[in-house]
Amino acid sequence: MAAVYHKIIQYIDANIKDEITITDIADMAGYSANHIYKLFKTYSPYPIMEYIRRKKLYFAANELYTGRKLYDIALDYGFETPAGFYKAFKNIFGCSPSEYKKNIQKEGILMFIDNIINIEELDAVLAFAKTLYTNLTFEFGGDGDGKYSRKFWIEQWEKCPELLLLAKENENICGIALGWSENNYITIGGDGTSKEYYGKGIHEALFVEIEKRAKKLGRRGIALGIEEGLEEFYAKLGYVGKTLIQSEKYSVDELKKFNEQYKNYEVTGSGVYEGYVNQLWVNSSLLDKELKKKFEKDIGDCWVQVIVSKEL
Q1: Does 225 lie in the same domain as 122?
Q2: Same domain, residue pair 158 and 192
Q3: Kind plus residue range of the DSSP H or E element containing 277
Q4: Could you tell me if 135 and 215 lie in one domain?
Q5: Of 156, 154, 202, nearest in space to 176 by CA
Q6: CATH label of the domain that carries residue 51
């Protein structure tokens, strides 16, 4: 089912400026409209037509940073009048399109999204990231040679700067999406916005932009590990979840048995990490917020990481 959902999400993104009907999607996917509705009830917080409407607005919000006229953007995404676009936009983001981008001033656009342009800006982004990740057991952007160290991010910037994105307002960094390319996929190693920008569409616009750039680079998909409580945010962007269950006490077969007793999610992989950590990968719905609790609290002696991904 997750593969069919991926296929539908890809179709919607590829045709986002067109009028998309449930009949179009059912014909493309080879399933009935009723099956499609049920599929979205499993994987998305929104019914399919509401999902499409919101994705159109996320893409439109991303274009507000380019300086294009609101009327032209509204027409591109199927809104026949500025008033209709205004109303739909405000219902989603809580402000008008003009307020969202703070209008274009003589000095340029006050709010913009682009990639990091130099090491000084990278250091500013890493300092900003530390304010987002206050519970890490390691220093994000710190010294050393490991992943997420300053050296690591400099290497990624030198290889592919277009995947290290930041959002700025009046020269103040307010959001980031930091990715790198690996095995034909993009991994996001840091993303988020400062609290005063929650719910204003900046985070969504960053993901729309990094997905555009990943497609331009010919990459097949995007993946990232997420924190508990953010499942619905990524689900509304069309991401699906894979849950990694790990235990030093329980064998892979025992983990599989518990999965079968609970939800019987599709098992996509298993193994033993470094000779003693038993791992089980399952295709799970991001809307199933009880899965982590079921394993970590009910079975005990295991820990759970949710990885979200999207095929491009």
Answers
A1: yes
A2: yes
A3: strand 277-284
A4: yes
A5: 202
A6: 1.10.10.60
User: Same structural domain for residues 144 and 101?
Assistant: no
The pLDDT tens digits along the chain (312 residues) read: 788 999 999 999 999 999 999 999 999 999 999 999 999 999 999 999 999 999 999 999 888 877 788 889 999 999 988 899 999 999 888 888 888 766 444 345 567 889 999 999 999 999 999 999 887 777 888 898 888 999 999 999 999 999 999 998 878 899 999 999 988 999 999 999 999 888 888 899 999 999 999 999 999 999 999 988 899 999 999 999 888 999 999 999 999 999 998 888 889 999 998 889 999 999 888 998 788 888 888 888 999 889 999 999
In this structure, are 247 and 227 located in the same domain?
no
Say how far apart CA 153 and CA 66 lie, in whole Å: 27
What's the domain count of the chain? 3
Residue with tokens 């400099």: 154
Q: Give me the domain span that covers residue 20.
A: 2-105
Q: How many CB atoms lie within 10 A of CB 11?
A: 15
- Rounded CA gap, 89 and 179, in Å? 28
If asked whether residues 97 and 117 sit together in one domain, one would say no
Strand order in the sheet with 221-226: 111-115, 164-169, 172-182, 185-193, 221-226, 303-311, 240-247, 277-284, 266-273
Q: Strand, helix or coil at 221?
A: strand
CA–CA separation, 152 and 144 (whole Å): 9
What number of helices (H) and strands (E) belong to the chain? 13, 11
The residue behind tokens 């719905």 is: 285
Same domain? 20 vs 83? yes
Residue 78 has which token pair? 């199927």
